Amino acid sequence: MSDRSQLISAGKPFQYDKKRDAEFERLVKRYPSRESMILPALWLIQEQEGWISQEAIAYVADRIGTFASKVYEAVTFYTMYQLHPMGRNHICVCRTLSCWLRGKQEIVDYLKTEVGIIPGQISEDGKFSLEEVECLGHCGTAPVVQVNGEFYENMDVDKLKSLLATLK
Ligand code: FES
Predict the structure, then answer these.
(1) Which atom of ligand 1 is nearest to the CA of 141?
(2) Which CATH superfamily is domain 89-166 in?
(3) pTM for the complete prediction?
(4) Which end of the chain is more exposed for a tag (fewer CB within 10 A), N or C?
(5) Domain ranges of the chain
(6) How far apart are CA 18 and CA 20, in angstroms?
(7) What per-residue confidence (pLDDT) applies to 123?
(8) Ligand 1 pocket: which residues have CB below 6 Å?
(9) Judging by beta carbons within 10 Å of its beta carbon (0-12, 13-18, 19+), is residue 107 exposed, middle or buried?
(10) Is the pLDDT of residue 98 over 80?
(11) Atom of ligand 1 at shortest range from CA of 142
(12) CA–centroid distance, residue 12 to ligand 1 (Å)
């Protein structure tokens, strides 16, 4: 999951679904130029597919009316964009100092032994993917885990276990 220069093909063309298509059209009116829509347009893809494929980048470039290289620059620079298929539930565990000191490794170890994933992997059933990330900005309530974009603070193995049981 660390090489951000390689794009992956989804093996099929991409297009926004109805909901994202309408959202794109709503947002584009609020931006000073179509090119300034690159980041929100990428978010819409990630929201729809969970990750951003080569085909989706070409789609956004076309839709915005810019070069694919401009979209490529943005998508490979910002690490919040996922460039590979993810599990249905993407788990980010902070590995920076406060979280490291306050037990992030127990969480990672639990995910390895009980869910069968290490950072960079997707579980066999496609339900979970795991990534270790840098500081999530909530150091005072470490350790911090982010699941599908939601923050969970003062996390421990028991809380994680309960949380995972609620996810589909
Ligand atoms: S060190 Fe983990 S949130 Fe800052």
Answers:
(1) 3
(2) Glutaredoxin (3.40.30.10)
(3) 0.76
(4) C
(5) 18-77, 89-166
(6) 6
(7) 94
(8) 94, 96-99, 135-139, 142, 144
(9) buried
(10) yes
(11) 2
(12) 38
Q: Is the pLDDT of residue 70 over 60?
A: yes
Here the tokens at position 124 are: 């066999």
* Token reading at 98: 């406060």
Q: What's the rounded mean pLDDT across residues 133-161?
A: 95
Provide CATH code, domain 18-77. 1.10.10
Compute the distance between CA of residue 29 and CA of residue 149 in angstroms, rounded to an integer.
26
State which ligand 1 atom lies nearest to the alpha carbon of 97: 1
Q: Say how many Å lie between the CA of residue 136 and the centre of ligand 1.
A: 5
Q: Which residues of 86-103 are buried (b: 16+ CB within 10 A; e: fewer)?
A: bbebbbbbbbbebbeebb
**Residue 143 CA, ligand 1 centroid: distance in Å:** 7
Q: What is the pLDDT of residue 2?
A: 52
Find the distance separating the first CA and the last CA of the chain, reported in whole Å. 23
Instruction: Please state, in angstroms and rounded to a whole number, the distance separating the CA atoms of residues 136 and 153.
Output: 10
pLDDT band at 44 (very low <50, low <70, confident <90, very high): very high
